[in-house]
Amino acid sequence: MTESASRLAIEAVWRIESAKLIAGLTRMVRDVGLAEDLAQDALVIALEKWPVTGIPDKPGAWLMTAAKRRALDLLRRDKLRDRKYEEVGRSAELYTEDELNGEASGEIGDDLLRLIFMTCHPILSREGRVALTLRLLGGLTTDEIARAFIVPEPTIAQRIVRAKRTLREARAAFEETPAGPELKERLEAVLEVIYLMFNEGYAATSGENWTRPLLCQEALRLGRILAEVAPLEPEAHGLAALMEFQASRLKTRVGPAGEPILLADQNRSLWDRLLIRRGLAALERARSLGRPLGPYALQAAIAACHAEAPSSEETNWMRIAALYEALSRVMPSPIVELNRAVAIGMAFGPAFALELVEQLESEPALQDYHLLPSVKGDFLYKLGRIEEAGAAFEAAAAMARNEQERDLLLRRAAACRSAE
């Protein structure tokens, strides 16, 4: 294997294993910042050794072993308190990959979910909770997180550093299993983190791949566990339903060369019917609790409209537009308004929808949001304003960070030029 191929393979392993590694190390050393440093040390060792020895059969277990040895060396060298040394030393047997991959049962027994609840501790600001958890568990870069929240990258970096310092100083316990009021207090941040993890997997902010299926899979798994932990919370079931519906389409979102396939062009016969049935069941559980639908359940209801429609043309776009109207009341957002404009365009035609999109062009939060000119270009094209549509697609491509999405937008712009 060439050095470049080896590095790419190691990076792929890291994306898969890093969150589990950090979670397991946090349980050992009780310090999330130190756990992240130890995980990075293990990665450096892998980058030095694996190009020579080859990638081991169980890379996750190898990384955990390397990190654990590094932790023991660090504790010896720094002469930390005997109690803490013994705490790590008692678990001297090395971890296996099976243990790292163990599923949660009963209460919060999953290291990853425990880490989410730890990093969503109420002593942290809401912004700090989300940024730290996305960095550690979602594997998102500070740049990706900044784009998700439409804020400067240095702001996100400061939030992460501050959050880790706060948890360390407060000695936040990893074993906490929130219940009752404490669970409710943290639930909103935990839901948001899992939601953003899934979104990054569903439509990657940057990079060569348009989707990151493993990240979606991990978010969905955590969402299912959370719905069992909080069975009386409609939004937990709503988020699980939303992810089930979206995950059902993952295999049809990309073509043979990794190119994006838009919703209208997807082969719906290939959508995963089992996941759709699971989504419908979770949405029904959310509704059965007798409370108004929140943001996640409303988005799940929108996704259900797509999942149940035989084709794009037969989709109940009027219902989707109404659901987006309801969503805009409980979660006001320029992005929600943009999605509502798309639904209105599908239900009532592009002319009125284009007016709505043009009104959103003055929104500061959408100035660098590539989907705004992309949606505008689509409406302009449908109205026969081909030259303007091409310019809009070119503007969207210039803003897009994901290579596959950028290429798609450039192809649409080229199609407009050839049609003039």
Structural key phrases:
WH-like_DNA-bd_sf; globular; sigma factor activity; 420 residues; mainly alpha
Short account of what is shown:
GO terms for molecular function: DNA binding; sigma factor activity. The protein is mainly alpha-helical.
**Average pLDDT reading:** 84
Percentage of residues in strands: under 5%
Portion of residues within helices: over 70%
Largest sheet: none
Terminal residue distance:
48 Å
Task: Tell me the number of helical segments per DSSP (H or I, 4 or more residues long).
Answer: 20
Overall shape: globular
Low-confidence stretches: 88-109
N-to-C SSE string, H for helix and E for strand: HHHHHHHHHHHHHHHHHHHH
For the secondary structure, the number of strands is: 0
Protein name: RNA polymerase sigma factor
Domain RNA polymerase sigma factor 70 region 4 type: 116-167
Organism: Paenibacillus nanensis
Domain RNA polymerase sigma-70 region: 23-79
Structure description:
With 420 residues, the protein is mainly α. Among the domains are: 3-96; 231-309. Helices cover 70% and strands 0% of the residues. It has helices at 3-29, 32-53, 59-78, 82-89, 97-100, 111-119, 126-136, 142-149, 153-170, 180-202, 213-229, 234-247, 273-288, 295-308, 317-330, 334-348, 350-360, 371-382, 386-399, 403-419. Helix 7 crosses helix 9, helix 7 crosses helix 10 and helix 11 runs antiparallel to helix 12. The radius of gyration is 23 Å and the shape is globular. The chain starts with a helix and ends with a helix.
